[in-house]
Amino acid sequence: MSENQPFRIAVLISGGGTNLQAIIDAVAAGDIPGRIERVICNRPGAGGLTRAEHAGIDTEVLDHRAYADRERYDAVLAERLEAIRPDLVVLAGFMRILTDGFVTRFMGRLINIHPSLLPAYRGLHTHQRAIDAGETRHGCSVHYVIPELDAGPVIAQAAVPIHPGDTAERLQDRVQAMEHRLYPEVVRWIAEGRVVLRSGRVWLDDEPLAAPPCLEPEAAS
């Protein structure tokens, strides 16, 4: 990125795109000093494509079912991304496990949001698992992507309380509301150059993070 060129963002989605919408809104409001160059989706007809189109953002459907295997799909996806020269690739509900080769190619400019307070509850069904374990606190984490699933360095988190009698659906709604606040904020930090990945560690404002900052439960309840 040069001084005369805006920070370039690519977003990968699979579904409705609510986190995409939060980032679109933050860019439109001037809160993120950058531009979403393209939204790429692996599922035709996903609602997030409509959100992007309404915002005047270029979209592309790259249907994974048209490719023989994960490696071939990821190779084409990487080529499409490199053509737009993104400074940051944002996974916003992109429901595919990326190959090691793809992740390595974009290491340091590839981030994801996961619905748990990592390193707790990697993988799927995090809300129900947290309830079943008797947790009183849950949330979401934005992290750099590395080849190991949901194990990349965490940039920031947001927490919500788990209430007595909570269902996974109610808990998911509260976590998602925090995702929509947290993800644009982290994208802004990266676009401003405040956050970088160096030697496998997250640096914020030229200092290595001892622990990721967290929006606490009282701000989310």
TrEMBL record:
Q: Which reaction does this chain catalyze?
A: N(1)-(5-phospho-beta-D-ribosyl)glycinamide + (6R)-10-formyltetrahydrofolate = N(2)-formyl-N(1)-(5-phospho-beta-D-ribosyl)glycinamide + (6S)-5,6,7,8-tetrahydrofolate + H(+)
Q: Which CDD domains match?
A: FMT_core_GART
- Per UniProt, where does (6R)-10-formyltetrahydrofolate bind? 70, 95-98, 112
**Residues bound to N(1)-(5-phospho-beta-D-ribosyl)glycinamide:** 17-19
Q: Which residues form the Formyl transferase N-terminal domain?
A: 8-187
Tell me the superkingdom of the source. Answer: Bacteria
Query: A Pfam family matched by this chain, by name?
Result: Formyl_trans_N
User: In what pathway does it function?
Assistant: Purine metabolism; IMP biosynthesis via de novo pathway; N(2)-formyl-N(1)-(5-phospho-D-ribosyl)glycinamide from N(1)-(5-phospho-D-ribosyl)glycinamide (10-formyl THF route): step 1/1
Family stated for the protein in its record? Belongs to the GART family.
- Name of this chain's protein: Phosphoribosylglycinamide formyltransferase
* Organism whose genome encodes this protein: Spiribacter onubensis
Q: What is the lineage of its organism?
A: Bacteria, Pseudomonadati, Pseudomonadota, Gammaproteobacteria, Chromatiales
